Every structure is written in structure tokens, then in C-alpha cells.
Structure of Major Facilitator Superfamily protein:
Amino acid sequence: MCAALVSAAVVTLGGPLVPQVQQSFGVGTEASQWSYTITLLVGATLTPLLGRLADGRRRRPAMIVVCALVTLGCAVSALGTRYGVFLTGRAFQGVAVALVAMTIACARDLFTGPATARLIALLSITTALGVGAAYPLTTFVADHLGLRAAYGGAALLSLLVTLAVAGGLPAVAARDGDPRLDVPGAVVLIAATACALLAISQGNAWGWTSAGVAALAAAAAVLLLAWIRLELRVPHPLVELRLFARRDVLAAHLTGLLMGVSLYNTPVLITRIGLAPRDTSYGVGLGLSAIGVVMAPIAVCNYLSSRGATALARARGRRIALAAGGVVGALGPLMLIGVDGHLSLLLASVVLTSCGAGATFGTLPGLIVDAVEPGETGSATSVNILLRAVGGAVGSAATAALVGAAAGPGGQTTSTGLAWAALACAGTCVASVVVSGCVPSRRRRTASHAVAVEPVPLPRTD
């Protein structure tokens, strides 16, 4: 739980600090957004490989190395005096994205019975819980002590978690069913994902019809097709693509991709709008510490909405629970259109966005866990985490592109650009509602996947 929470806090650390990064390093809007995008890009490319490592005896050393790299990345960002060095640190921090999938594999392997379903549901929403816990503290430290202090504190916290994982996570005994690592598949998938995300990220800067963007997009398509062909032929694939033939698994992955756009990027829009002066026609005029207070309900709303979604799934089915999460999540970014200085609308956006994310991501793991064998849990859930991060990276790049395309004189952010970005986040949530219709209305009970046959509510805090 500590590893998953810290990973979420570190990954989303760049969100509320994007405006301060822009001011501290003297870079433009799109360049400063890269301090957030690059972490998601690295996380998206490496998560499948690290998730596969979590399915066997390599789990413990892999998690220790990942936590150590996160610590190193935070230290580099804290000490870097140039923007390039700062970005390098943020890139190292991206490996933290994989920790959620790795901890879910631990829960599936080390626990049995109802405790497994409870813990997996809780681990699945740690991304949002980490955001809610980290935002107030991060913004307060950055506001009063500066950007370096915020990342220095994250480095210290990550170091403590690294020591805790090294001392507390049990080793996994070797077994006949341990999956072999598909190195060629990992390399090809990393290359394909990197090309695709770079094409989207640089589209606004290079031009969407430029030769560079076209070449990256073509390379991503060719590499992806080659990877699919490779994964269908190797005996121990990095990702078991045949599982995508199941409607519940396919729906879970598409929903993760679509909802990831809003999960990672609506808070960035809230921060920009909240920090903007009132004379901008859209700003609320808050300080950075006040933004952290506004974000504080995220953790509570995610936790409560996850419990509510579990109860709804038990009563009406997971299809209804996923659809409800998408509808509520779409209302969040829509609240940002026409804020015009109203703090109440900003708070409403925070509550609705976090409730939608909690309901959705609290429901998804059960769809996946029911469909796969225990030895495939890390790999399968890592694909879902990968797609969330891909959605976040695509959304981050699209947000920067939309805001930049509608920039005013001197590159100033305008209400039009923010409205376009908010509509994009809301649109992906609506699309996830459509995808939820692919989920079977009634769950099939199977003996081999009995770990999460009955939805179980999250544990009581008392």
C-alpha cells in the first residue's frame, strides 16, 4: 500500500506544479507541460515489462529497483538547475506508474479469499488516493519552500518506501509456472508506445502534417502490428492478447484508456484555472497552498465512490457501475467551462471528477482478475495501468496542444483553450460510458477465477 500510494503521489506530483515549473525555469506553456507528460510517457512504455516481472520470482528485486529509481529521479529533479536535468529526473520517476500493477500481483499471490478482492480494489484506486493525499502537502511545501523542497521531500519519502519494500516484501519462491520474460516483445512495445506518444506530444510544436510527426506515427503503427504478430506466436508473451477476446477484459482496458485522460489532466486544468488571476475572465485567483486545499477532497471522494460502486456492482452489475462512473466523471471537467472566478464550480469539478474516477477504477480490477489465471495477474493489470498512463500522456499532450492552439497575445492562456481541453476530458468520459455497454450484464462464476467472484466492499476504517 505504501509503495502504491507513493508511486501515485510522485507520478502526479507534476500536475499542480506545472505553472510553477513554467515560472521557475522560464519556459513556455507547452514546454512546462512536458514536466508532466514525460513521466506518464515513460510509465506507459515500461509498465508492461515491469508488470510481467511482478508475476514471478523477480518481483521483489524488480520492485526494489523501481522504488530506487523513483528516489533517484526525485533527487535529480530537486537538485537540477537546468530544465533538461529536471526533466530527466521526471523521466526516472515515470517507472513508478508500474508499481500499482506490481502491488496488485503481490495481493493476488500473497492473499486468499475475500481479503484479496478488498485489497485489489483498494490498490486500484491508489492513484487517485495518492493525488488527494499529496496535493495539499506538495502545494504547501512548493508555495512556501519552493520547487526544490517539494521534490526533495518526495525523494526522502521514496527512499523510506524503498527501504520498507526491501525489508518487508517477501521473496517469491521459484516455481515451474514462472513466466519467461519476453524481451523482444518488450523492446518492440516500448518502441511503438514511445513513437506514438512522441507524435502526439510534438504535434502542435512540429505541425500535425509535418514529416517528423508523420514518420513517428507510421513507425508506431508498423511496430504495433509487428508486436501483435510477435505476441501471438511466442510461447510466453509479454501480454496475453488472446484475453482481449473476452468482452469484459476488452471493456476494462478501453475504459482505463479513456478515463485516464480525465483522471490525469482535469486536475491540471483545475490548477491552471485556480491559480489564474480573476482579471483573466476565467481565473479564481487562488494561491498554490489554497489549490492544495481545494484538491483535498479527492482522496475521500475516491474512497467513498469506490465503495459505492462496489455496492452498485453487487446490486445491478458492473456494467451499471462503470457507466455511472463515466457519467459522473464527465460532469467534472464540464464544471470548468465558464468558471469565471466561482470557487464553488472549481470545488464541484474536483468532487465530480474524483467520484467518477473512484467508481470506475474501483470496478475495473474485478473484471480483469476474474478473467486471468493468478500467474497472469501482474501482466494483465499492467496493461490496464499502461492504458491509463497512455490516456494520461495523450490527454496531457492534447491539453497542451489545445491550450496552445487558442493562446492569446504573448502566448497567454485563454478561456477558449481551457474550454476545449475540458470538453476533450469530458468527451473521453462519455466514450467510456458507451464502452461499458460491452460488459456482460451478469458475471460468470468460474472455479479457476473464484478470487473475485462476489464483489466485496472495501474494509471499514474502524
Remarks:
- Confidence is low (pLDDT under 50) at residues 443-462.
